[in-house]
Amino acid sequence: MYSYTLKRLFQGLITIWFIATATFVAMHSVPGDPLINERGVNEEIRRNLEERYGLDRPVLEQYLIYMSNMAKGDFGISFTQQNRSVNDIIREHFPVSATLGILAIVFAGIGGVLWGALTALYRNRLPDVIIMFLVILGISVPSFVIAAIGQLALVSLNGLVGFSVLPVAGWGTVLHMLVPSLVLGLGTMAFLTRLMRSSMLEIISADFVRTAYSKGLPPTRIFMKHQLRNAILPVITVLGPAIAAITTGGFVVELVFAIPGLGRFFVQAVQQLDYTVIMGTTVFYGAFLVFMVIAVDLIYGFVDPRVRLE
Amino acid sequence: MKDLVLIAKDFAPIAVEREAQSITRPSLSYWQDAWLRLKTNRRALISLFIVVGLLVFTIAGPWVWTIDPAAQDLDQLSSPPGANRRAIIVTPYLPWSGITADSVPISGQTIGATAEIRLAQPATTQAVRLEWDPVPGATGYRVYRNLYSPAPDGALGLPIGEIYDARRISYEDLLDLRPTRFWYSIVATDELGQEVAEYTTLVVNVIRVVTVDEAISDGLVGPNVVPKLGDEVFVKLHPLGTDYLGRDMLARLMYGARVSLFIGIIAPLFFVLIGILYGSAAGFIGGRVDQFLMRFADFVVALPFLLFMILFKIAFGIGPGESGILPMLVALIVLSWPATARLVRGQILQIREEAYIAASQLLGAKTYYLILRHMIPNTLGVILVTITFAVPTVIFVEAFLSFIGMGVAPPTPSWGSMCNEGIQTMLNHPHELIFPALLISITVLAFNLLGDGLRDALDARMRSRE
User: Fold this and answer.
1) CA–CA separation, A202 vs B279, rounded Å?
2) Residue (of A276, A280, A286) closest to A55 by Cα position
3) How far apart are alpha carbons B436 and A294 in whole angstroms?
4) B433 close to A148: Cβ distance less than 8 angstroms
5) B-chain residues near A202 (CB < 8 A)
6) What DSSP designation does B168 have?
7) What ranges in chain A are assigned the alpha helix state H?
8) Which of B302, B404, B440 has the CB atom closest to A251's CB atom?
9) Residues 6+ apart with CB under 8 A from A151
10) pLDDT tens per residue across span B78-127
11) How many beta-carbon pairs below 8 A join chains A and B?
């Protein structure tokens, strides 16, 4: 168990190194140079800027400096926002994204498990047909369209009631978080519902369920203790990819709902070609996702004793 | 003891048996069997028709609907489908000197609103000319225009005119006139330029007009017909309306389909091909090389996909005039091959151990024969299913990137970038968002259902339990 954890962490570190290197290579093969957007920069200022960002050194040396800074957790200074370090930006805006993401995961997880179990129990009957239709809709409608529709629904709801029940955009209170996180979790919820349904269908006809019935257990107990708990296991395995999907899906939701999260900053940085912010956030997100996947795998080992972690 | 002499006849059967077992139906190949199974799956079959229909729409559409997707129809900006296309032929625009009152009545106590607003001339898309009665005590007027009836205490709309002379009691509106209904409000202002509380509103229905020259140059009348003043003509037809720049939505959707489906189909073909080569190489060679190749694939899988799509798209260059299709293809291929590689490697390793391979080898089959006859046909089903499921994923990625402004560059239409533009004007002109979003959803849905059907039909082992 411990050796497995250590091994996974080590592999994770190598993966992060790979991500950092790939980021470095990608950003250094961009045509032109980072200062190309600075208009009317004369030679002297340009040289000063290059010196400040270390762009006057050979590429290999830049790489070594970059890697050692990354190891120290120092992502550098933003190109476009004066005197703001990338660490500051992450520290300030990541908690917003994380709150949104956690809420979305909770929505998606609870919703997916409940809907999935429900559709399996009512297989081929009306609730199943309705929910599976919505699930197919949720899988095939792009996230930004869902976000736009969600916002439109808020506008018309507020218009109908006559005062602002739920804020249409922005961030701050719990009310601000409700609709964006629901919208963000919807796609994942649809995916989890599908998975939960097929896993539940398999469990419903399993031998141990029949045994439980034949020994006279009440159906609610069978549902909670025998069916649900076993059917949830495959859902846990896909939580890693689901977290990744919600993290990047957050970009769109943050843009549409004007939420000051890290995703919106990343998109802005990409549009303004803010090199240090792009590199810093990519490596940060990459590391975050790698550790999330490891954490999910470890949790799975705890939850399902049949899985041996080696 | 007599010698038993056996001749050939003794070994003949005593009676000819009836054929107890025979194959009465023609034997089916794998693909025939799969097709039969697919045909019984109604959802998959409908999806297949939809996919074929989309391809026809994309490839043949631009020959049928020959309007240039980049051409702007400035008479019809953001016009919804089924909009009124009637237009009246009028003389070219003539300047208007406006109306000036001889004097303004002396003020009473407070400055009120004007008694009424009149149209000096019929309101057309050339100009809306308003006149009103002078307001006693006023020193000027402010003119507002709104698309909705101004609610009490509500905003009056866009302030379009400011008049600093109380005797000047007319206003000519030339700004972005469209054949719709406008609410014009006029408020008198005092010496300090402050508005008085009261206002008067006039509802104006603007009529679409064109001049004789415009009608001829736009081909709104027959080739040899000289239009007369007051004639009724119809402006160009846009079945699905126009976007905010007056470009034909149907033509743009067709060209956008070319971009979206091109990326959606070509990218999976390429990365699946690379995945097959990589995976089968790893599977065949085995040992250290296999380990190394698969570990590298693991690293590529670990890269956060969309973040690196964005990074690679920047890295592969978005120069001026670059539509961004090629960088996106390259980035997709670079990042997406490992999943197929893993799958193919697994299949190869599995098939290699099958009994029929051993039998084939015993019968003297060479390696290339094994690959061509057994390995490839047996993995083809799985690969086809992978490609079908990859198409909607790639279409989503394209739409996502175009939405955050990292996808296909603006003049080139793609469904994603059209959605992005449509979302800006969602409240007033929903058709600009609905049509591309609908097409994306239908395409993704069709490919997903077709993929489900193909998986059920092609591969008994992967059959879904739904």
Assistant:
1) 32
2) A276
3) 39
4) yes
5) 465
6) B
7) 2-28, 43-53, 59-72, 86-121, 126-140, 143-161, 174-204, 207-214, 219-221, 229-237, 239-256, 262-271, 275-303
8) B404
9) A168, A169, A179, A256, A257
10) 777 777 777 788 888 888 887 887 777 766 666 777 777 888 888 888 88
11) 119
Say yes or no: B400 contacts chain A, CB-CB below 8 A.
yes
ipTM for the whole predicted complex goes beyond 0.95: no
> CATH 2.60.40.10 occupies which residues in chain B?
96-208
Nearest residue, CB atoms, B441 vs list A19, A140, A285: A140
> Which stretches of chain B score pLDDT less than 70?
1, 17, 19-20, 23, 106-110, 152-154, 197, 317-323, 459-466
- Distance (Å) from the C-alpha of residue B156 to the closest C-alpha of chain A? 18
* CA distances for A8 relative to A2, A72, B187, angstroms: 10, 21, 73
Residues A309/A298, Cβ–Cβ less than 8 Å: yes
Q: What is the pLDDT of residue A91?
A: 87
For the segment A32-61, what is each residue's pLDDT rounded down to a tens digit? 666 665 565 677 777 777 777 777 778 888
Query: Distance from B444 to chain A by nearest Cα, in Å?
Result: 5
d(CA B235, CA A177): 47
Element (H, E) at B173: strand B170-173
B369: phi > 0 → left, psi -120 to 50 → alpha, else beta; which? alpha
Please tell me which of the candidates B399, B404, B423 has its beta carbon nearest to residue A267.
B404
Q: What are the backbone dihedrals phi and psi of residue B412, each rounded to the nearest 5 degrees, phi first?
A: -80, 125
Buried b (16+ CB within 10 A) or exposed e, B212-223: bebbbeeebbee
More confident residue, A209 or B62: A209
In this prediction, residue B318 carries a pLDDT of: 57
Q: Which of B304, B426, B444 sits opposite A140 (nearest CB)?
A: B444
Q: Which residues of A touch B396 (CB under 8 A)?
A: 142
The alpha carbon of B269 is separated from its chain's Cα centroid by a whole number of angstroms, namely 21
Query: pTM of the entire structure?
Result: 0.79
* B45-69+245-465, CATH topology level: MetI-like fold (1.10.3720)
d(Cα B49, Cα B447) in Å, to the nearest integer? 11
Least CA distance to B297: which residue of chain A?
A15
Integer Cα distance of B364 and B400 in angstroms: 53
Do A144 and A256 form a contact (C-beta atoms < 8 A)? yes
For residue B466, the model assigns a pLDDT of: 40
- Cβ neighbours of A152 in B, within 8 Å: 426-427
**β-strand pairing of B86-90 with B209-211:** parallel
Q: Which residue of A has its CA nearest to B311?
A: A26
pLDDT beyond 90 at A165:
no
DSSP tag of A35 = G
Task: Locate CATH 1.10.3720.10 in chain B.
Answer: 45-69+245-465
pLDDT of residue B459: 66
What pLDDT is attached to residue A310?
A: 54
Of A76, A77, A75, A79, nearest to A41 by C-alpha is A79
Q: Which CATH architecture has domain B96-208?
A: Sandwich (2.60)
